[in-house]
Task: structure prediction
Amino acid sequence: MLLRTFVNSAWVIVGGYALAMVIFAIWARRDMGEGDESYYLAGRSLTGPVLLVTMAATNFSAFTVYGSSGASYRIGLSFLPIMAFGTGFMAVSMFILGRKIRSRSVQHGAMTAPEMVMGQTGSKSAQLTMATVLVLATIPYLALQPRAAGIVFSALFGGPEWIGAVLVTLLVVAYTLTGGLKAVVRTDIVQGVIALSLLWVGLAMVISDSGGISAAMEAISSSENTEGLLGREGNYTLLIWTSTMILWLFADPMFPQLYQRLCAAESDAAIGRMATLYPAVAWLAFVPPILIGTIGHLSYPDLDTAGSDNILPTMIMDVGGEWLGGLVLVAGLAALMSTMDSQLLATGSLVTRDLLGKDSHEDWSREFVIVSLSVLGLILSVWSNLSILNLGLLAFSMYAVMFPSVLASAHFDEIDGRAVVASILAGEAVVILAVFSPESFDGWWVEPVKGAVPTTVIPSLFAATVGLVATQQYFKIGEDFSWRFEIKGSDIAPLAGLLAVFVLAQDFWWWSETGTWSFGLPKWIWWAAALSMAQTAIMAKWVGKVTPR
Result:
């Protein structure tokens, strides 16, 4: 009888949410215009507040909810500043690069990074190379979402995870096809608010069940099996710590779905307002899943990697009961759906506009591409045995390689397309080597870790930069070309301040610090939070100076 009641309640909650999203998506497409600019970029109309919410909802995905909770179960609280500060700091590169991306997008009528590169270089080869790699990188990241959906459905209803993966994929495809970016953005806003609110409700339930946050931290620190969860040594090396933060800084602007929103911003000021407030949103998003994953060790001490990815729904159902637990798990669905729809739309634009060509597609082909991509992601989610964390980090490593060529293309009119191709191939070669032959790095300082390879971001970015510069110099011999970036006087102070914040976030002078402060949390977590506040203050001052109101 109890099981029947639970199943019925779960179906009511999830079914009601799914129906609401479909109805909302149909309503949201009411003012959708004609053409790709309306479909893919919402007519370049995203204001600052809208851009902030849709950026956050899109970026905070199944990786945020399930990957982070699973990682914190295995690693501990050291994962919090890596994610909250690191992801928040990527707003700096979003602001620096985003304004130039937006202007070049308007100049060339470009809706994707490869289109912008094509407009700047005139090179079809550069466009095709970048588009191909971006699509290949997005597929594993796309696979995270149905993987996590399967976890939620299995926790709610039992049975195999693939059923939930299929059902959520069908739902997301349905409303994405319905209204393009306008529908996606509007559903993102609703899903973002739902996800953030319910995750904090779930955290409050878990903390209350544990006797309070201080009691939970004390229990973790006093046990030999869990005491390492509150430290960094043994969980991270300084190299991995720094590499991962660098990874977020350079990878995130290259996410097709985030790049798409920079192109869709209505003004530079909108990008600035988004970048200023983004660090605060990052902390609000990552604190609940990471604390839940760490505290979950007290109740479930011996989970393997696959089991640890299930720790958040397991804990929520344990403490929340039938209705409340099921309601909170909708937060995970909201997070993954708000990312999956954006990934499908952005990657669909890469395929239709960059790989197939502007003149070769109609509405039906856009829809066919989106459906095909969803099927590929679904297959990978079922087939791959990589953890959610490793699937995400593999995609991020591939994205980061794009940054040097996109940055150079956005700033220089004379960049050679062959330099872009060389940059991408050189950087991705390092990533591929680390994935398939990590033993090749034995004795090096890189130390790749399984499929995630966060430490390879430094050598891969180095290879990409050298490939870009060397090839450009080779083909531009004797021509008037300078690599000098224009830095205005108003930019020097904020850039210096932000660099100082990033350096201070590496904590190399007190790496082994194990003391706690308020609520029993390690001092270095509060330190990272304070640095994020400093970043926000610097960004607010900078944005106010360089963007018109």
